[in-house]
Write a structure and sequence with these properties.
It is built from ten helices and no strands. It is mainly alpha-helical.
């Protein structure tokens, strides 16, 4: 079991949360520089279980939560074990690497991106698990631990969801018989600002998604079984939230299979809550 680490006067244990903070900022910079074709790639090789674009707004919550959590650790409210922050930082570094690889669009790059995001999901999941293995400190409650570490668990849940989508996109792009499902958007017009062009492109993709047929895929339900089990086993109820958010944003929702997935996720999250606060 990991050793307990508390903040000390000389700042020895500030390195962990500062590493998380800097890696998160690196991911933000990477997204700002290399995310030109991410939307086109996702649209062009869309899977049947790709959620509506609004589902990806969860990234804003994860970014803000990570910054707040890292700063909370820096000021000494609660500091996680070194390994928790180490895996958390590695997950963000992988996220930063993922953007330019996925942005490259061609099949081999997309397969590389899938491997990178798989690693990121694994690192964040390891960190989330270790955060619950962390030795209790006098005066630190379960609620405080979850209140500090929820962005890590939210990141893990979302990355596990995104990994399945990335592998599906890589498979579609590698299949010569797969026809691109994306509409062609007129290039940026002379005098058109970057923000206006991105808005016009986003509207075109949303309209294309609305016209696409609603197809029920078994992938979300299978992933729900995995994440529900992991949530109950870690235990951490936050882990199921990202996939639940993705499922309700699927075009074919509420199909029987997708409702089943939500029930499984809710069950896993409920068991996690009981293990944390009732059965401990």
């Amino acid at each position: 079991m990991p050793a307990t680490i508390e903040p000390d006067a000389n700042g020895t244990y500030l390195f962990g949360p500062l590493m998380v903070l800097s890696a998160c900022l690196l991911s933000m910079v990477s997204s700002a520089i290399w995310s030109r074709n991410v939307g086109e790639t996702s649209c062009g090789w869309r899977t049947d279980y790709s959620p509506d674009g609004r589902a990806f707004s969860i990234w804003a919550v994860i970014y803000v939560g990570t910054v707040v959590s890292a700063l909370t650790q820096v000021i000494g409210v609660l500091v996680f074990d070194w390994w928790v922050n180490f895996f958390w930082g590695l997950a963000w570094v992988c996220c930063a690497i993922w953007v330019p690889t996925f942005d490259a669009e061609y099949p081999s790059a997309l397969r590389t991106a899938a491997l990178v995001i798989s690693g990121s999901a694994g690192f964040s999941l390891a960190g989330a698990w270790l955060s619950q293995m962390w030795v209790d400190v006098e005066g630190v409650t379960r609620a405080q631990k979850i209140g500090t570490g929820w962005p890590l668990t939210l990141l893990a849940g979302w990355l596990l969801t995104a990994t399945s989508i990335n592998w599906g996109i890589a498979f579609n792009a590698s299949n010569p018989n797969t026809v691109s499902s994306c509409v062609r958007v007129e290039a940026q017009r002379k005098g058109e600002s970057d923000s206006s062009y991105r808005y016009r492109r986003r509207i075109a993709y949303r309209e294309s998604y609305a016209k696409a047929p609603a197809v029920v895929s078994p992938v979300p339900a299978l992933l729900a079984v995995v994440l529900g089990g992991l949530s109950a086993g870690i235990p951490d109820p936050i882990l199921v939230v990202p996939l639940m958010w993705a499922i309700v944003n699927l075009k074919a929702f509420p199909s029987v299979l997708y409702v089943f997935g939500l029930v499984v996720l809710l069950g896993g999250g409920t068991i996690a809550v009981l293990r944390l606060f009732v059965w401990e």
